[in-house]
Write a structure and sequence with these properties.
By secondary structure, the protein is an alpha/beta fold. It is 37% helix and 22% strand. The strands form five sheets. The chain has a six-stranded mixed sheet with strand order 9-6-1-2-3-10, with helices on both faces. A five-stranded mixed sheet has the order 14-13-17-15-16, with helices on one face. A two-stranded antiparallel sheet has the order 4-5.
Protein backbone atom coordinates (compact mmCIF):
# COMPACT_ATOMS: atom_id res chain seq x y z
CA UNK A 1 0.00 0.00 0.00
CA UNK A 2 2.86 2.36 0.63
CA UNK A 3 3.65 2.33 -3.08
CA UNK A 4 0.45 4.32 -3.59
CA UNK A 5 1.52 6.70 -0.86
CA UNK A 6 4.92 7.15 -2.46
CA UNK A 7 3.27 8.09 -5.73
CA UNK A 8 1.75 11.05 -3.92
CA UNK A 9 4.99 11.74 -2.02
CA UNK A 10 6.89 12.08 -5.26
CA UNK A 11 4.22 14.35 -6.70
CA UNK A 12 4.26 16.76 -3.77
CA UNK A 13 8.03 16.68 -3.60
CA UNK A 14 8.20 18.13 -7.08
CA UNK A 15 6.50 21.26 -5.78
CA UNK A 16 9.57 22.21 -3.77
CA UNK A 17 12.03 24.63 -5.38
CA UNK A 18 14.92 22.18 -5.22
CA UNK A 19 13.05 19.10 -6.46
CA UNK A 20 14.85 18.77 -9.79
CA UNK A 21 18.18 17.65 -8.41
CA UNK A 22 16.56 15.50 -5.74
CA UNK A 23 14.35 13.57 -8.15
CA UNK A 24 17.12 13.37 -10.70
CA UNK A 25 19.32 11.40 -8.34
CA UNK A 26 16.39 9.41 -6.93
CA UNK A 27 15.20 8.56 -10.43
CA UNK A 28 18.57 7.07 -11.36
CA UNK A 29 18.55 4.94 -8.24
CA UNK A 30 15.01 3.76 -8.81
CA UNK A 31 15.69 2.61 -12.36
CA UNK A 32 18.78 0.67 -11.28
CA UNK A 33 16.88 -1.45 -8.78
CA UNK A 34 17.49 -5.21 -9.19
CA UNK A 35 13.74 -5.82 -8.85
CA UNK A 36 13.19 -4.50 -12.39
CA UNK A 37 13.51 -7.35 -14.90
CA UNK A 38 14.51 -6.93 -18.53
CA UNK A 39 11.07 -7.68 -19.99
CA UNK A 40 9.26 -5.00 -18.03
CA UNK A 41 9.71 -2.34 -20.70
CA UNK A 42 8.25 -4.73 -23.27
CA UNK A 43 4.99 -5.38 -21.41
CA UNK A 44 4.32 -1.84 -20.19
CA UNK A 45 2.17 0.23 -22.54
CA UNK A 46 3.47 3.60 -23.72
CA UNK A 47 1.34 6.48 -22.45
CA UNK A 48 0.37 9.74 -24.08
CA UNK A 49 1.33 12.96 -22.36
CA UNK A 50 -1.51 14.73 -20.56
CA UNK A 51 -3.66 11.60 -20.83
CA UNK A 52 -4.78 9.44 -17.88
CA UNK A 53 -2.52 6.46 -17.21
CA UNK A 54 -2.40 3.33 -15.06
CA UNK A 55 0.25 2.34 -12.52
CA UNK A 56 0.59 -1.14 -11.01
CA UNK A 57 1.50 -0.68 -7.34
CA UNK A 58 2.87 -3.59 -5.33
CA UNK A 59 3.76 -4.02 -1.70
CA UNK A 60 6.34 -6.79 -1.48
CA UNK A 61 6.11 -9.49 1.19
CA UNK A 62 9.75 -10.53 0.69
CA UNK A 63 11.57 -11.08 3.97
CA UNK A 64 15.24 -10.15 4.40
CA UNK A 65 16.32 -13.81 4.10
CA UNK A 66 14.35 -14.44 0.85
CA UNK A 67 15.29 -13.86 -2.80
CA UNK A 68 11.80 -14.21 -4.33
CA UNK A 69 8.36 -13.12 -3.18
CA UNK A 70 4.69 -13.02 -3.94
CA UNK A 71 2.90 -9.67 -4.03
CA UNK A 72 1.42 -8.91 -0.61
CA UNK A 73 -0.53 -5.86 -1.78
CA UNK A 74 -1.76 -5.31 -5.36
CA UNK A 75 -3.31 -2.02 -6.44
CA UNK A 76 -3.92 -0.45 -9.84
CA UNK A 77 -3.85 3.36 -9.72
CA UNK A 78 -5.50 5.36 -12.48
CA UNK A 79 -3.97 8.85 -12.54
CA UNK A 80 -5.66 11.74 -14.38
CA UNK A 81 -3.19 14.62 -14.40
CA UNK A 82 -5.69 16.99 -16.04
CA UNK A 83 -8.46 16.43 -13.49
CA UNK A 84 -6.08 16.08 -10.53
CA UNK A 85 -7.66 12.79 -9.49
CA UNK A 86 -6.51 9.27 -8.64
CA UNK A 87 -8.46 6.00 -8.63
CA UNK A 88 -7.13 3.09 -6.55
CA UNK A 89 -8.46 -0.38 -7.29
CA UNK A 90 -7.31 -3.07 -4.84
CA UNK A 91 -7.02 -6.66 -6.04
CA UNK A 92 -7.19 -9.53 -3.53
CA UNK A 93 -3.92 -11.43 -3.63
CA UNK A 94 -5.78 -14.77 -3.81
CA UNK A 95 -7.78 -13.72 -6.90
CA UNK A 96 -8.10 -16.58 -9.39
CA UNK A 97 -6.28 -15.54 -12.56
CA UNK A 98 -4.74 -16.95 -15.70
CA UNK A 99 -0.98 -16.44 -15.35
CA UNK A 100 0.62 -16.46 -18.82
CA UNK A 101 2.81 -19.53 -19.20
CA UNK A 102 1.78 -20.98 -15.83
CA UNK A 103 -1.94 -21.66 -16.07
CA UNK A 104 -4.51 -20.78 -13.43
CA UNK A 105 -3.26 -19.65 -10.03
CA UNK A 106 -3.47 -16.97 -7.38
CA UNK A 107 -2.75 -13.63 -8.99
CA UNK A 108 0.05 -12.77 -6.57
CA UNK A 109 1.92 -15.88 -7.69
CA UNK A 110 2.77 -14.10 -10.97
CA UNK A 111 5.35 -12.05 -9.09
CA UNK A 112 6.99 -15.23 -7.79
CA UNK A 113 7.03 -16.95 -11.18
CA UNK A 114 8.14 -14.07 -13.38
CA UNK A 115 8.73 -10.88 -11.42
CA UNK A 116 7.36 -7.45 -12.39
CA UNK A 117 6.90 -8.19 -16.09
CA UNK A 118 4.73 -11.26 -15.52
CA UNK A 119 2.83 -9.42 -12.79
CA UNK A 120 2.08 -6.58 -15.21
CA UNK A 121 0.98 -9.04 -17.91
CA UNK A 122 -1.29 -10.93 -15.52
CA UNK A 123 -2.97 -7.86 -14.03
CA UNK A 124 -3.42 -6.24 -17.44
CA UNK A 125 -5.00 -9.41 -18.81
CA UNK A 126 -7.21 -9.91 -15.75
CA UNK A 127 -8.59 -6.37 -15.80
CA UNK A 128 -8.55 -5.85 -19.56
CA UNK A 129 -6.71 -2.53 -19.31
CA UNK A 130 -3.19 -1.33 -20.22
CA UNK A 131 -0.56 -0.85 -17.53
CA UNK A 132 1.76 2.10 -18.19
CA UNK A 133 4.02 2.17 -15.10
CA UNK A 134 5.17 -0.10 -12.29
CA UNK A 135 6.17 0.64 -8.70
CA UNK A 136 7.01 -1.70 -5.82
CA UNK A 137 8.07 -0.84 -2.26
CA UNK A 138 9.19 -3.18 0.51
CA UNK A 139 8.11 -3.18 4.15
CA UNK A 140 11.16 -1.36 5.49
CA UNK A 141 10.42 1.52 3.17
CA UNK A 142 6.85 1.67 4.44
CA UNK A 143 7.94 2.14 8.05
CA UNK A 144 10.49 4.77 7.14
CA UNK A 145 7.97 6.91 5.26
CA UNK A 146 5.44 6.82 8.08
CA UNK A 147 8.05 7.71 10.69
CA UNK A 148 9.53 10.44 8.47
CA UNK A 149 6.19 12.29 8.32
CA UNK A 150 5.68 11.97 12.07
CA UNK A 151 3.14 9.15 11.93
CA UNK A 152 -0.34 9.08 10.41
CA UNK A 153 -3.62 9.83 12.20
CA UNK A 154 -6.12 6.99 11.73
CA UNK A 155 -9.56 6.29 13.17
CA UNK A 156 -9.03 2.59 13.92
CA UNK A 157 -12.35 0.74 13.75
CA UNK A 158 -11.42 -2.53 15.50
CA UNK A 159 -8.80 -3.88 17.87
CA UNK A 160 -5.87 -5.47 16.03
CA UNK A 161 -3.66 -8.03 17.74
CA UNK A 162 -2.14 -10.16 14.99
CA UNK A 163 1.29 -11.78 15.35
CA UNK A 164 1.29 -12.70 11.66
CA UNK A 165 1.47 -9.03 10.74
CA UNK A 166 4.98 -9.05 12.23
CA UNK A 167 6.33 -11.85 10.07
CA UNK A 168 8.36 -9.44 7.96
CA UNK A 169 11.23 -9.24 10.44
CA UNK A 170 12.84 -11.83 12.76
CA UNK A 171 12.34 -10.92 16.39
CA UNK A 172 9.83 -8.17 15.66
CA UNK A 173 6.55 -8.26 17.56
CA UNK A 174 3.38 -6.91 16.00
CA UNK A 175 1.97 -3.90 17.82
CA UNK A 176 -1.40 -4.27 19.47
CA UNK A 177 -3.71 -1.48 18.30
CA UNK A 178 -6.81 -0.42 20.23
CA UNK A 179 -9.85 1.10 18.48
CA UNK A 180 -10.11 4.88 18.26
CA UNK A 181 -8.60 7.93 16.58
CA UNK A 182 -4.86 7.85 17.11
CA UNK A 183 -1.44 8.62 15.68
CA UNK A 184 0.23 5.47 14.29
CA UNK A 185 4.01 5.34 14.01
CA UNK A 186 5.73 3.19 11.37
CA UNK A 187 5.55 -0.12 13.24
CA UNK A 188 1.93 0.33 14.34
CA UNK A 189 0.95 1.51 10.85
CA UNK A 190 2.56 -1.58 9.33
CA UNK A 191 0.53 -3.82 11.63
CA UNK A 192 -2.62 -1.85 10.69
CA UNK A 193 -2.17 -2.29 6.93
CA UNK A 194 -0.79 -5.86 7.01
CA UNK A 195 -3.15 -7.61 9.43
CA UNK A 196 -5.66 -9.95 7.80
CA UNK A 197 -6.86 -11.55 11.05
CA UNK A 198 -10.52 -10.79 10.31
CA UNK A 199 -13.54 -12.88 9.29
CA UNK A 200 -13.18 -11.68 5.69
CA UNK A 201 -9.33 -11.65 5.81
CA UNK A 202 -7.95 -9.68 2.86
CA UNK A 203 -11.07 -7.58 2.30
CA UNK A 204 -10.85 -5.80 5.67
CA UNK A 205 -7.12 -5.46 5.17
CA UNK A 206 -7.64 -3.80 1.78
CA UNK A 207 -10.21 -1.46 3.31
CA UNK A 208 -7.70 -0.51 6.03
CA UNK A 209 -5.07 0.14 3.37
CA UNK A 210 -7.42 2.46 1.52
CA UNK A 211 -8.25 4.34 4.73
CA UNK A 212 -4.55 4.65 5.47
CA UNK A 213 -3.67 5.98 2.03
CA UNK A 214 -6.33 8.69 2.16
CA UNK A 215 -5.13 9.74 5.60
CA UNK A 216 -1.53 9.84 4.38
CA UNK A 217 -2.53 11.91 1.34
CA UNK A 218 -4.24 14.50 3.56
CA UNK A 219 -1.30 14.63 5.95
CA UNK A 220 1.23 15.10 3.14
CA UNK A 221 -0.46 18.32 2.01
CA UNK A 222 0.54 20.04 5.26
CA UNK A 223 3.30 22.60 4.81
CA UNK A 224 5.71 20.99 7.29
CA UNK A 225 5.58 17.65 5.51
CA UNK A 226 5.83 19.17 2.04
CA UNK A 227 9.22 20.57 3.01
CA UNK A 228 10.39 17.12 4.13
CA UNK A 229 9.41 15.25 1.00
CA UNK A 230 12.45 15.75 -1.24
CA UNK A 231 14.69 14.12 1.37
CA UNK A 232 12.10 11.37 1.94
CA UNK A 233 11.96 10.53 -1.75
CA UNK A 234 15.75 10.38 -1.94
CA UNK A 235 15.95 8.10 1.10
CA UNK A 236 13.14 5.88 -0.19
CA UNK A 237 14.77 5.21 -3.55
CA UNK A 238 16.72 2.23 -2.18
CA UNK A 239 13.51 0.56 -0.99
CA UNK A 240 11.54 0.89 -4.22
CA UNK A 241 11.64 -0.50 -7.75
CA UNK A 242 10.01 1.41 -10.58
CA UNK A 243 10.30 2.22 -14.27
CA UNK A 244 9.23 5.82 -13.57
CA UNK A 245 11.79 8.49 -14.35
CA UNK A 246 12.32 11.96 -13.01
CA UNK A 247 10.32 13.29 -15.97
CA UNK A 248 7.38 11.06 -15.09
CA UNK A 249 7.39 12.43 -11.55
CA UNK A 250 7.53 16.02 -12.77
CA UNK A 251 4.54 15.40 -15.05
CA UNK A 252 2.56 14.21 -12.03
CA UNK A 253 3.63 17.15 -9.92
CA UNK A 254 2.23 19.74 -12.30
CA UNK A 255 -1.33 18.69 -11.61
CA UNK A 256 -1.39 16.68 -8.37
CA UNK A 257 0.72 18.60 -5.85
CA UNK A 258 -2.35 19.54 -3.79
CA UNK A 259 -4.09 16.18 -3.95
CA UNK A 260 -6.02 15.15 -0.86
CA UNK A 261 -8.44 12.39 0.06
CA UNK A 262 -11.34 14.18 -1.67
CA UNK A 263 -9.65 13.57 -4.99
CA UNK A 264 -8.92 9.89 -4.39
CA UNK A 265 -11.40 7.16 -5.34
CA UNK A 266 -10.95 3.73 -3.74
CA UNK A 267 -12.57 0.38 -4.45
CA UNK A 268 -11.86 -3.34 -4.20
CA UNK A 269 -12.50 -6.22 -6.59
CA UNK A 270 -15.00 -8.30 -4.68
CA UNK A 271 -15.68 -11.97 -5.19
CA UNK A 272 -16.61 -15.30 -3.65
CA UNK A 273 -14.09 -17.31 -1.67
CA UNK A 274 -13.92 -20.86 -3.04
CA UNK A 275 -10.73 -22.38 -1.69
CA UNK A 276 -8.05 -21.74 -2.66
CA UNK A 277 -9.17 -18.74 -4.74
CA UNK A 278 -11.26 -15.60 -4.69
CA UNK A 279 -13.51 -15.90 -7.74
CA UNK A 280 -14.08 -12.34 -8.96
CA UNK A 281 -17.57 -10.93 -9.36
CA UNK A 282 -17.21 -10.25 -13.10
CA UNK A 283 -20.20 -7.91 -13.32
CA UNK A 284 -18.90 -5.75 -10.47
CA UNK A 285 -15.40 -5.82 -11.96
CA UNK A 286 -16.74 -4.54 -15.29
CA UNK A 287 -18.56 -1.71 -13.50
CA UNK A 288 -15.47 -0.62 -11.56
CA UNK A 289 -13.18 -0.77 -14.60
CA UNK A 290 -15.67 1.21 -16.66
CA UNK A 291 -15.96 3.87 -13.96
CA UNK A 292 -12.18 4.14 -13.54
CA UNK A 293 -11.37 4.26 -17.24
CA UNK A 294 -14.07 6.83 -17.95
CA UNK A 295 -13.33 9.18 -15.05
CA UNK A 296 -16.37 8.50 -12.90
CA UNK A 297 -16.66 7.91 -9.18
CA UNK A 298 -16.68 4.25 -8.17
CA UNK A 299 -20.04 5.01 -6.54
CA UNK A 300 -21.53 6.70 -9.61
CA UNK A 301 -23.80 4.72 -11.88
CA UNK A 302 -23.22 5.33 -15.58
CA UNK A 303 -25.99 7.13 -17.45
CA UNK A 304 -27.69 4.36 -19.46
CA UNK A 305 -28.03 6.72 -22.42
CA UNK A 306 -24.28 7.44 -22.35
CA UNK A 307 -23.05 3.92 -21.66
CA UNK A 308 -23.94 2.53 -25.09
CA UNK A 309 -22.41 4.14 -28.16
CA UNK A 310 -24.33 3.93 -31.41
CA UNK A 311 -22.49 1.14 -33.31
CA UNK A 312 -23.09 2.92 -36.60
CA UNK A 313 -20.82 5.75 -35.43
CA UNK A 314 -17.87 3.39 -34.74
CA UNK A 315 -15.68 2.51 -37.74
CA UNK A 316 -13.95 -0.87 -37.57
CA UNK A 317 -11.18 -2.52 -39.59
CA UNK A 318 -10.81 -6.31 -39.39
CA UNK A 319 -7.67 -8.30 -40.17
CA UNK A 320 -6.84 -12.00 -40.23
CA UNK A 321 -4.00 -12.52 -37.75
CA UNK A 322 -4.39 -16.28 -37.48
CA UNK A 323 -3.86 -17.48 -41.04
CA UNK A 324 -7.25 -19.22 -40.93
CA UNK A 325 -9.12 -18.75 -44.18
CA UNK A 326 -12.33 -16.76 -43.82
CA UNK A 327 -11.91 -15.78 -40.16
CA UNK A 328 -11.64 -12.03 -40.83
CA UNK A 329 -14.70 -12.11 -43.07
CA UNK A 330 -16.65 -14.04 -40.41
CA UNK A 331 -15.73 -11.55 -37.70
CA UNK A 332 -16.59 -8.64 -39.98
CA UNK A 333 -20.03 -10.14 -40.64
CA UNK A 334 -20.70 -10.49 -36.89
CA UNK A 335 -19.87 -6.82 -36.42
CA UNK A 336 -21.95 -5.69 -39.42
CA UNK A 337 -24.94 -7.56 -38.05
CA UNK A 338 -24.38 -5.75 -34.73
CA UNK A 339 -24.57 -2.45 -36.59
CA UNK A 340 -20.88 -1.45 -36.70
CA UNK A 341 -19.44 0.44 -39.67
CA UNK A 342 -17.01 -2.19 -40.95
CA UNK A 343 -14.57 -0.95 -43.56
CA UNK A 344 -11.27 -2.66 -44.38
CA UNK A 345 -11.25 -6.47 -44.17
CA UNK A 346 -7.95 -8.18 -44.96
CA UNK A 347 -4.85 -9.86 -43.62
CA UNK A 348 -2.49 -8.79 -40.85
CA UNK A 349 1.23 -8.54 -41.66
CA UNK A 350 1.85 -11.81 -39.81
CA UNK A 351 -0.27 -14.82 -38.87
CA UNK A 352 1.12 -15.05 -35.33
CA UNK A 353 -1.80 -13.93 -33.16
CA UNK A 354 -2.95 -16.53 -30.63
CA UNK A 355 -5.87 -14.44 -29.36
CA UNK A 356 -8.27 -11.99 -30.97
CA UNK A 357 -7.41 -8.38 -30.18
CA UNK A 358 -9.60 -5.27 -30.26
CA UNK A 359 -7.15 -2.39 -30.66
CA UNK A 360 -7.86 1.27 -29.88
CA UNK A 361 -5.83 4.47 -30.15
CA UNK A 362 -8.26 6.51 -28.08
CA UNK A 363 -11.72 5.52 -26.95
CA UNK A 364 -11.35 2.59 -24.57
CA UNK A 365 -15.14 2.47 -24.12
CA UNK A 366 -15.65 1.96 -27.88
CA UNK A 367 -13.16 -0.91 -27.88
CA UNK A 368 -14.86 -2.60 -24.93
CA UNK A 369 -18.21 -2.38 -26.72
CA UNK A 370 -16.80 -3.89 -29.92
CA UNK A 371 -15.11 -6.69 -27.94
CA UNK A 372 -18.42 -7.54 -26.29
CA UNK A 373 -19.96 -8.08 -29.73
CA UNK A 374 -17.42 -10.81 -30.54
CA UNK A 375 -17.41 -14.36 -29.12
CA UNK A 376 -13.92 -13.88 -27.68
CA UNK A 377 -11.55 -10.88 -27.70
CA UNK A 378 -9.15 -8.86 -25.57
CA UNK A 379 -8.94 -5.05 -25.57
CA UNK A 380 -5.48 -3.51 -26.01
CA UNK A 381 -4.14 -0.02 -26.59
CA UNK A 382 -2.35 0.56 -29.91
CA UNK A 383 0.60 2.55 -28.45
CA UNK A 384 1.73 3.11 -32.04
CA UNK A 385 2.27 -0.58 -32.82
CA UNK A 386 -0.72 -0.92 -35.16
CA UNK A 387 -1.43 1.21 -38.24
CA UNK A 388 -5.12 1.84 -38.93
CA UNK A 389 -7.33 4.82 -39.71
CA UNK A 390 -10.61 3.49 -38.34
CA UNK A 391 -11.77 4.02 -34.75
CA UNK A 392 -11.10 0.37 -33.88
CA UNK A 393 -8.98 -2.43 -35.32
CA UNK A 394 -9.92 -6.09 -34.80
CA UNK A 395 -7.16 -8.65 -35.33
CA UNK A 396 -8.65 -12.16 -35.37
CA UNK A 397 -6.41 -14.68 -33.61
CA UNK A 398 -6.12 -18.44 -33.50
CA UNK A 399 -8.70 -18.58 -30.72
CA UNK A 400 -11.16 -18.15 -33.60
CA UNK A 401 -11.25 -21.95 -33.70
CA UNK A 402 -12.93 -21.93 -30.27
CA UNK A 403 -15.75 -19.64 -31.37
CA UNK A 404 -19.14 -21.27 -31.30
CA UNK A 405 -20.11 -21.74 -34.93
CA UNK A 406 -23.78 -21.43 -34.01
CA UNK A 407 -23.08 -17.94 -32.73
CA UNK A 408 -20.90 -16.87 -35.68
CA UNK A 409 -23.32 -18.00 -38.34
CA UNK A 410 -20.81 -20.30 -40.04
Amino acid sequence: MIAAGLLVLAVIAAGATYVYSTLHSAGRMMNQQPGIDERLSEVLEAREKRKPFNVLLLGSDMRPWESESRADTIIVARVDVEAGKVWLLSIPRDTRAEIPGHGVGKINGANFYGGPSLMVETVSQTLGIPIHHYMSVDLTGFQKVVDAVGGVWIDVDVEIDDWRAASHSPGYRAKNIKPGYQLLDGEHALTYVRSRDFPDADFTRMRHQQVFFKALADQMTKVGNVLKIPSIVREMAEYMSTDMSMGDMIDLASALRDIGSANIETATLVGEWRSPYVWTDEERKAFLIDAMMNGRSFDEEADPEDSVIDPATISVSVRNGAGIEGCAAAAAEILRQAGYAVGEVGNANQFVYDETLVVFQSGHDMAVQVAEALPKARVVESRGMYAFTSDILVVVGKDYTTWNTADTGQ
